Amino acid sequence: MDHARLDFDRTRRIDLPEAVYCLHKTVEQCVDIVGEMLSNGSDAVIATRATDEQQQALAELAPDAAAGSILTWRHRAPSGRRAAVVAAGTSDMPVANECRLTLEALGHQVEAFTDVGVAGLHRLLAVLPELESAEALVAVAGMEGALPTVLAGLVAQPLVAVPTSVGYGAAFEGQTALVSMMTSCAPGIAVVGIDNGYGAACATHRVLAGYQRMAP
Questions:
Q1: Is residue 170 within 8 Å of residue 70, measured between CB atoms?
Q2: Which of 148, 145, 150, 96 has its CA nearest to residue 122?
Q3: Among candidate residues 60, 75, 5, the one with its CA nearest the CA of residue 27
Q4: Which residues fall within 8 angstroms of residue 132, CB to CB, at 6 or more apart?
Q5: Which residues is 137 bridged to in the sheet?
Q6: Rounded-to-integer distance, Cα 1 and Cα 30, Å
Q7: What is the DSSP letter of 112?
Q8: CB neighbours of 169 closer than 8 A, spacing ≥ 6?
């Protein structure tokens, strides 16, 4: 292709495949790249941030799964590892779905929990036993971004926090949540960029892959 140089060796180097970031690409470029990866690669194929037009064209390539702006093909074999993706509100679901589908494409079992933000703390506490059985957690939240701090004070598992560009007033398109998560008083939280569900999934995969290597 004259518009892309695909990195088929990335999986060997870092155990993560190259993903296709569709935004700002043409429909034809997206289809070319995904088609090339399906034809000449062997790992999972992940396309993120696809527009409606791109989604329609990519759907003709028969993805294994799709949700919103993300499509995935050729999922890895089950790893036996379990993650939980926790979204504070329904408005955070697009970012949470990007994270969930990426993790599933990488072979992990994922359970999603939606609308368990701290404005109704009883909703989070109700699912806490299920969260405690996961090996890693991803907390997705906008507004003031308090959910990861609360979770990190309740569970021992590795936790990746994702600020979203959702919120009223002084949310500043996710900047408030980002700064809040980065200055959390709960120790050990890893924070990715605003709306970066894909990046959160990659960080969580590295954690889960570490668990697998250390297992007897």
A1: no
A2: 150
A3: 60
A4: 155, 157
A5: 84, 159
A6: 12
A7: E
A8: none
